[in-house]
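Exercise 7b. Backbone tokens:
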């Protein structure tokens, strides 16, 4: 029995905790019924799960914190959950983290140890999914993509062996784990990371009227491309339900690694470039990296409150509703006319909950060669995309055709600007040549590595690398 072999917990459909155990971040996948959810507490637990799945012939689904937009961390087989493997320990020149650790917990645990790591812009994403896909956020411009800082990884392979992947050991696997996508090459149980040197940070937020949205979007993009690498920033167009007087609004926010006066000057420059004034502008007091990141990610919530509701007695973090999305990477600032076209696709006249979101990239991330790691997008300046959501169960049950149509229109508006796609922000509509779109010229090498480490495709999901496909396609 698998249960007897685990230090952790196995939750089966007949167990009281099953309803919660099968949840991902997105409510869309609440209807998926895995045959069991194994909360692993050690690498040996992970090995036992892999062997069990192999011997019984059931699919294995690797899960960190369940943020996969397209539901790749669940299915009808055994969910191998890493969320309890969540240590974070300073270890000489590196930081060792359990692959299931969430951003907010890593920031918190490392604070007293005088070290920090790169995270994304959402508190509960796990480092396992974040790093294996690349790892983008407000530190990208200053410190590179998260996976550029992986020194080594402990990995349980499809045949149940455990290996260490680094520049010297299993170098091909090490290369693939840095951006080749989660759930594909093995189950990472622990990473050793190069920490970031980021003692102080300042958070900031500005709000702009929707009437100026095209000017603001174009100006923000050119500002971000030209800005010092100390700047980490996102822009989101929010629908009327979140704006003043029911009108949509544009929010620009992020963190700054430099002196507060430099941030103030940079924000003045943003105002100058837009040719209009924000309705709100606020910069926090400079503070410790962990504190400022926590505040920007979680607001006034405590660490425990900031977790997803149900995963801790105090947790009140929200889940995401049924969502459709279209995201691409773009390689330069948009013109005013292009900004207009992106906003027309977003469509200010709709009432639905929907967003146009951009994260500024470039900087240190683009000083690494395209083939040095599996993350190929070294010319990207922005992650740009759209999301639409519905909480109406009837509409979901009917099949939300309007959501798909909206996302398709948005995807079409983005297409002329796109340089590729980021595997951690996959579009709902999967393009025919998605591997090239996500991995470019690194695709053949990823297929070879998949064949070498998982020849029968034991680890697979909707967009995992297919080792059976010809390597040179
Ligand atoms: C609200 C939201 C905000 C986000 N913000 C950002 C952001 O700012 N920056 C960014 O880069 N991304 C962001 N993402 C995307 C996120 O990085 C990816 O969805 C990531 O894969 C999630 O990892 P997870 O473990 O939380 O999710 P899961 O659904 O558990 O896993 C995602 C994928 O990774 C695989 N995986 C998970 N853990 C491991 C492991 N230990 N070993 C091997 N494979 C593993 C899974 O099999 C699955 O294929 C965001 C996603 C959401 C939903």
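Sequence design result:
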């Amino acid at each position: 029995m698998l249960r007897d072999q685990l230090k952790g917990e196995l939750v089966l459909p007949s167990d009281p905790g099953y309803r919660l155990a099968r949840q991902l971040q997105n409510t869309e996948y609440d209807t998926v019924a895995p045959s069991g959810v194994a909360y692993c507490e050690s690498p040996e637990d992970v090995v036992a799960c892999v062997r069990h799945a192999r011997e019984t012939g059931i699919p294995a689904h690797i899960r960190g914190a369940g943020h996969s937009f397209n539901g790749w961390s669940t299915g009808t087989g055994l969910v191998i959950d890493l969320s309890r493997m969540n240590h974070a320990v300073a270890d000489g020149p590196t930081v060792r983290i359990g692959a299931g650790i969430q951003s907010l917990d890593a920031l918190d645990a490392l604070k007293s140890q005088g070290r920090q790591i790169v995270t994304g812009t959402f508190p509960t994403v796990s480092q396992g999914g974040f790093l294996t896909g690349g790892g983008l956020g407000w530190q990208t411009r200053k410190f590179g993509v998260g996976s550029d800082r992986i020194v080594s990884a402990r990995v349980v392979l499809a045949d149940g062996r455990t290996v260490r992947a680094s520049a010297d050991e299993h170098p091909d696997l090490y290369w693939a784990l840095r951006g080749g996508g989660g759930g594909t090459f093995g189950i990472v149980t622990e990473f050793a990371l190069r920490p970031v040197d980021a003692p102080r940070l300042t958070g900031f937020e500005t709000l702009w009227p929707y009437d100026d949205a095209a000017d603001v979007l174009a100006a923000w993009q050119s500002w971000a491309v030209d800005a010092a690498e100390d700047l980490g920033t996102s822009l989101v167009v929010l629908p009327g339900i979140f704006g003043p007087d029911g009108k949509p609004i544009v929010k620009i926010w992020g963190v700054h690694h430099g002196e507060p006066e430099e941030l103030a000057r940079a924000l003045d420059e943003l105002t100058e470039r837009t040719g209009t004034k924000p309705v709100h502008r606020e910069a926090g007091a400079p503070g410790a990296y962990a504190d400022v990141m926590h505040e920007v990610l979680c607001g006034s919530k405590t660490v425990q409150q900031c977790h997803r509701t149900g995963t801790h007695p105090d947790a009140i973090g929200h889940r995401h509703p049924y969502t459709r999305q279209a995201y691409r990477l773009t390689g330069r600032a948009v013109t005013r006319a292009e900004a207009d076209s992106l906003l027309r696709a977003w469509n200010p006249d709709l009432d639905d909950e929907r967003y146009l979101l951009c994260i500024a990239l470039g900087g240190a991330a683009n000083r690494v060669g395209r083939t040095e790691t599996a993350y190929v997008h070294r010319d990207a300046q922005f992650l740009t995309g759209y999301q639409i959501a519905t909480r109406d169960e009837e509409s979901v049950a009917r099949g939300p055709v309007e959501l798909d149509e909206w996302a398709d229109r948005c995807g079409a508006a983005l297409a002329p600007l796109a340089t590729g796609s980021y595997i951690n922000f996959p579009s709902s509509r999967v393009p025919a040549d998605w591997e090239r779109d996500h991995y470019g010229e690194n695709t053949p090498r990823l297929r070879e590595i998949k064949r070498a480490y998982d020849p029968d495709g034991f680890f697979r999901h909707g967009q995992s690398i297919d080792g059976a496909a010809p390597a040179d396609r």
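Instructor comment: The chain has three domains: 2-81, 88-193, 200-297+313-420. Residues 2-81 form a domain with the Uridine Diphospho-n-acetylenolpyruvylglucosamine Reductase; domain 2 fold (CATH 3.30.43.10).
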